[in-house]
C-alpha cells in the first residue's frame, strides 16, 4: 500500500488523536501500535519514533515489541499478502517445497516484499484448514493440496 502525502498526513492526524485518547490507558503501547499498523499497513521508523515520543518510552522499546509480535510489520506490505502454511500437517505434506517454489518464482524470500511491491511472502502457522494441506493463502483466497508445480499458475492470476 503506497500512500499519498495527503493520506499520510490524515493518517498521522488520526494516529495522534488516537494516542491522545489512549495514552493514559493501562499499557497503551500495543493498542497504539496496532492502530498505527491498521492506518499505515506497517510501522516505519518515523511512526515508531512518533509513538515512542508520545508515550515517553525509548524507541527501542517500540521496536522490540514490533519485532517480537508477528502481527506487526516493519516493511510496507505488498499489494497481495501470500502465506504458505508451515504448520505440522502442511509441513508433513510438503509445504517447505511449495514455499521454496513461491520464493523462486517471485525471486523474494519469505518475510519480505517483492521489489515491484506486488507480493509479501509469509510463512504462517496453521491456518485452520489442515484437511487441505499443504495450504497457501493469497489475500483471503485459500489454495489447498498444492504441489510446487501448481505455484506458477496460481501466481499468474495475481501478477
Ligand atoms: S497445518 Fe496447515 S492448515 Fe493446519
Which structural traits does this protein have?
159 residues; 2 domains; binds FE2/S2 (inorganic) cluster; four-stranded mixed sheet; Glutaredoxin; 4 strands; alpha+beta
How would you describe this structure to a colleague?
There is one protein chain. The two termini are 16 Å apart. With 159 residues, the protein is of the alpha+beta class. A four-stranded mixed beta sheet has the order 2-1-3-4, covered by helices on one side. The longest helix is centred in the N-terminal third of the chain and has 18 residues. Helix 1 packs antiparallel against helix 2, helix 2 runs antiparallel to helix 3 and helix 3 crosses helix 4. The chain folds into two domains: 64 residues; 77 residues, Glutaredoxin. Helices cover 48% and strands 11% of the residues. The model has no long low-confidence stretch (mean pLDDT 94). The protein is built from seven helices and four strands, in the order H-H-H-H-E-H-H-E-E-E-H. Bound molecules: FE2/S2 (inorganic) cluster (FES). FE2/S2 (inorganic) cluster binds next to helix 5.
Amino acid at each position: 500500500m503506497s500512500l499519498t502525502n495527503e493520506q499520510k498526513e490524515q493518517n498521522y492526524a488520526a494516529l495522534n488523536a488516537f494516542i491522545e485518547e489512549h495514552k493514559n490507558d493501562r499499557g497503551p503501547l500495543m493498542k497504539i501500535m496496532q492502530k498505527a499498523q491498521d492506518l499505515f499497513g506497517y510501522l516505519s521508523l518515523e511512526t515508531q519514533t512518533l509513538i515512542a515520543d508520545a508515550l515517553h518510552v525509548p524507541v527501542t522499546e517500540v521496536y522490540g515489541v514490533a519485532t517480537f509480535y508477528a502481527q506487526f510489520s516493519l516493511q510496507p506490505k505488498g499489494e497481495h499478502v501470500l502465506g504458505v502454511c508451515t504448520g505440522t500437517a502442511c509441513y508433513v505434506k510438503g509445504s517447505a517445497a511449495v514455499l521454496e517454489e513461491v520464493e523462486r518464482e517471485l525471486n523474494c524470500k519469505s518475510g519480505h516484499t517483492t521489489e515491484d511491491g506486488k507480493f509479501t511472502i509469509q510463512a504462517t502457522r496453521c491456518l485452520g484448514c489442515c484437511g487441505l494441506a499443504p495450504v497457501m493463502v493469497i489475500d483471503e483466497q485459500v489454495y489447498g493440496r498444492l504441489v510446487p508445480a501448481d505455484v506458477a499458475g496460481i501466481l499468474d492470476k495475481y501478477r
